[in-house]
Amino acid sequence: MENLSDFVDLAGWTPYQDEPAGENEKTWFQDEDGALWIFKRNRPQRSPNENATEFIASQIAGLLGVPAATVRLATLGGSIGCVSKDVKSDPRNQLDAGSLFIAEIVPDFDPKDRGARGHSLRNIASVLAAVSPPLGHEEAGLSATGWFAGFLVLDALIGNQDRHSENWSIEITPDGTYHLAPSYDHATSLGIVQRNPEKLNRLVSDPGAVRKFAARAVGGRFEGMAKVPLVEVASQFCVDAGPAVTTHWASAIAGLDIGAAPEIVARGKMSSPSDRLALELIRINKERLVTCLRS
């Protein structure tokens, strides 16, 4: 039985509206301060750890200095999941998925194209060239492209292979300014695809196997990157964005204190083998990123 002591019970929150976007059922709620949060139920047929990986990823993003959605573990009736706070800095702002902007420069763009046609690193950079940094992060000296490079570094660190064109967005203010929105939707990470208990136990007992498992996280959500490791996807985007961007994220990843990771992962309430796999992936991927961003 799950220990639910760290979970927020949404029974006392105000339902706001259902969310039509995405593959699974989601509902928006208002907390006592009126802030909007989206509740995502765990899908047992996918993994019972979806809420945990969302939560852990949001915490790791904070350690790395990447703007990201605030996530809490949550329950609603008999359902277990997580709530993710609205990434907009102001409820009056509009949030448009990256796919809408890619479609403006790629004829007949299809966000569900199996080969990710048009969702290339170059096209993403082209879109972001006309976009400002995330609201509240303008003083860091990074452009929107530089911040998106941080999203990809985070993805490589946690093994998130789901950065498709509708898993990043642009925030538009009422006066017409465009800003990269904080990162969100990190459930497909930290080895969540490894669900078979026997295979999971065998995997975490073999350090060499975990390293090979980490290397299998590739950039299939980006055109031409289906066989390219995520650490190389992140490194290439950083290099293309310029020396200042590469230096910033190389320093951030080198200085990342993963000593805080065990406590963060433990709060996700996963099984012991899942915790071990998540921690080992973070350790290995940090090491790989340091090497990649240094070269």
Integer-rounded radius of gyration:
18 Å
How far from one another are the termini? 47 Å
Q: State the total count of DSSP E strands.
A: 9
What is the CATH fold-level name of the largest domain?
A: Phosphatidylinositol 3-kinase Catalytic Subunit, Chain A, Domain 5
Order of helices and strands: EEEEHEEEHHHEEHHHHHH
Number of helices: 10
CATH structural architecture of the largest domain: Orthogonal Bundle
The overall pLDDT, averaged over residues, is 92
What composes the largest sheet?
A: 6 strands, mixed
How much of the sequence is in beta strands?
Answer: 5-15%
Strand order in the sheet with the most strands = 1-5-6-4-3-2
Kindly name the structural category: alpha+beta
Number of domains: 2
Helix content: 25-40%
Poorly predicted regions: none
Shape: globular
The top level CATH class name of the largest domain? Mainly Alpha
Features:
295 residues; alpha+beta; Phosphorylase Kinase, domain 1; Phosphatidylinositol 3-kinase Catalytic Subunit, Chain A, Domain 5; 2 domains; 6-stranded mixed beta sheet; 3-stranded antiparallel beta sheet; 10 helices; globular
Q: What report would you give on this structure?
A:
- The chain folds into two domains: about 10-85, Phosphorylase Kinase, domain 1; about 95-295, Phosphatidylinositol 3-kinase Catalytic Subunit, Chain A, Domain 5.
- The protein is of the alpha+beta class and about 300 residues long.
- The strands form two sheets. A six-stranded mixed β-sheet has the order 1-5-6-4-3-2, covered by helices on one side. Strands 7-8-9 form a three-stranded antiparallel β-sheet.
- It starts with 7 loop residues before the first strand and ends with a helix.
- Helix 6 packs across helix 10 (about 270-295).
- Helices cover about 40% and strands about 15% of the residues.
- It is built from ten helices and nine strands.
- The chain is globular and about 50 Å long.
- The protein has helices spanning about 50-65, 100, 120-130, 145-160, 195-205, 205-215, 230-240, 245-255, 260-265, 270-295; strands at about 10, 15-20, 25-30, 35-40, 70-75, 80-85, 95, 170, 180.
- The longest helix is centred in the last third of the chain and has 23 residues, at about 270-295.
- The mean pLDDT is about 90.
